[in-house]
């Protein structure tokens, strides 16, 4: 791992710094009474800008969507440079900022590269269909972000002449672009002097000024925006904003900040409080006291029962999926048929299991109003529970109980299922299609991995019981053939 390069502390103040301080004072005077609040003085703002940008030019990460003409990194040529056209560059910044919401940078890199290969320009994205967009987004979560990108691209095409606007107010009018994203695009791509506020910026500013209270409270949110807009560098606003966020991501981290490497430590009131208390005193003030930690509301608990229904025709198995509604959680995505399950009762061991009858009824509706008996001759008895898994959304902790069922159908019935539209739109994905499975949501892939585990049990058995191994493997393979169609395999994708 590349070690950060320290930026030395200057002794005295040069005439150049005096000029920067004078410029800041002029900005503050124009902006009103901000300095009288005592949060930052003009000298602190000038010093912070100077040191943070100097640190950033040496230590910034190499990212495919980033452009820094002042970079002092010797390894900065890490791939094709972002486009020179400001509107095209704004599109790149937009995509990266949306992907980075709630997602780690290392994860986003690969997704960003694939996205740009599929939709290199905003015009390409505007012509895309939501299903393909969701496929490219699969695994990033928060799928509403992908839909907003598509809707936003069409808005720019239809309302803005196909060019990204450069002002914060106009960018904010694009569907799905909030104040943070609008400010980030305006400053990074167009050089507009606009501050940004995200989780990293809140943490850095809270520590620099030792700001108490819930950072999500309206008054503190307003204060953070005011702070950010006051300190952003007028000449290099995009680089400064990225530097502030980079500092929060790599140095001023939530649990173990590297204060000794921080270029802003001279302005950090939280660090000053900690040092005044003394390093040897336990229970004293800490930099990590800021921002205030707010207890999160626990997620709502839900349980559903789904069915991995595998339709086999002419020797090839396909997963039968249904499309979710166009609004709400996971809007427009494909999933296995499922029903909500009520709370456990004292009669938990009774037959059929919770939600089984409702699930069978749903499957009957999907199969052209018919019933499982019409396809299998056994109906509910054909379903078999193979396990469960948990999946956590931002506000929901969902437990999915998984049933499995296989259907042998002729070519005519297979064609009917392939083309069903209306309220129960269906899709058939080949079981052995790595690309098709990879395009599905994380929850669906978890179910598929659970079923692929049927075959893994045979491997364990072979290791522990040599004599019984082959028989157990054959038995497990028959189960797989029953569920997925003869010869079909499902591999772990993650």
From TrEMBL:
Keywords: 4Fe-4S, DNA damage, DNA repair, Glycosidase, Hydrolase, Iron, Iron-sulfur, Metal-binding. Binds 1 [4Fe-4S] cluster. It comes from the Eukaryota. Residues 469-478 have a biased composition (Basic and acidic residues). One of its GO terms (cellular component) is nucleus. Its EC number is 3.2.2.31. Pfam families: HhH-GPD, NUDIX_4. InterPro entries: DNA_glycosylase, Endonuclease-III-like_CS2, HhH-GPD_domain, HhH_base_excis_C, MIG/MutY, MutY_C, NUDIX_hydrolase-like_dom_sf. It is an enzyme of class 3 (hydrolase). Residues 455-478 are annotated as: Disordered. Its cofactor is [4Fe-4S] cluster. GO terms for molecular function: 4 iron, 4 sulfur cluster binding; 8-oxo-7,8-dihydroguanine DNA N-glycosylase activity; adenine/guanine mispair binding; metal ion binding; oxidized purine DNA binding; purine-specific mismatch base pair DNA N-glycosylase activity. It catalyses: Hydrolyzes free adenine bases from 7,8-dihydro-8-oxoguanine:adenine mismatched double-stranded DNA, leaving an apurinic site. Gene3D superfamilies: Helix-hairpin-Helix base-excision DNA repair enzymes (C-terminal) (1.10.1670.10), Hypothetical protein, domain 2 (1.10.340.30), Nucleoside Triphosphate Pyrophosphohydrolase (3.90.79.10). Residues 459-468 have a biased composition (Basic residues). Residues 99-250 form the HhH-GPD domain. One of its GO terms (biological process) is mismatch repair. Adenine glycosylase active on G-A mispairs. Belongs to the Nth/MutY family. This is Adenine DNA glycosylase.
